[in-house]
Write a structure and sequence with these properties.
127 residues, GIY-YIG endonuclease, 4-stranded antiparallel sheet, two-stranded antiparallel ribbon, 5 helices, 21% strand
């Protein structure tokens, strides 16, 4: 979306409006897609991808995005990974889904622990 000659990422803006902190990024370019992990009420993890993180989180929260998460509300955004394009997002989602649970938990732990002074990419938001 372009407003007054300034390009704006609608997906990121909708996440900001919901109070979800955006993950730290090294690139100034806005991501075209996101891979995300949700922690469900029962402790299970759900992995997905989207081009509009805010809208997708709202759909999960309302119980219409996935039967899996709808039966395990509330869900918490555990990790959001910006991706350069949709293909990369689908590929990363498939890679993460193939990981065993301990490897997924390690991925979350690494995201929580800042390396070399960087901010973590894990927003700690319950909705």
């Amino acid at each position: 979306m372009v407003t007054n000659g300034v390009s704006r990422d609608v997906g990121a803006e909708s996440v900001r409006r919901q109070g979800v902190p955006l993950p730290w990024r090294t690139s100034r370019a806005m991501p075209e897609a996101w891979v995300y992990l949700l922690r469900c009420r029962d402790g299970s993890l759900y992995t997905g991808w989207t081009v509009d993180l805010g809208r997708r989180l709202a759909r999960h929260r309302s119980g219409v995005a996935s039967q899996y998460t709808a039966s395990r509300l509330p869900v918490e955004l555990a990790l959001a990974i910006p991706m350069p394009d949709r293909t990369a997002a689908r590929r990363e989602e498939a890679r993460i889904k193939r990981l065993p649970r301990p490897a997924k938990l390690a991925l979350l732990t690494r995201a929580e622990t800042p390396a070399s002074g960087r901010r973590p990419t894990r927003p700690a938001t319950q909705f």
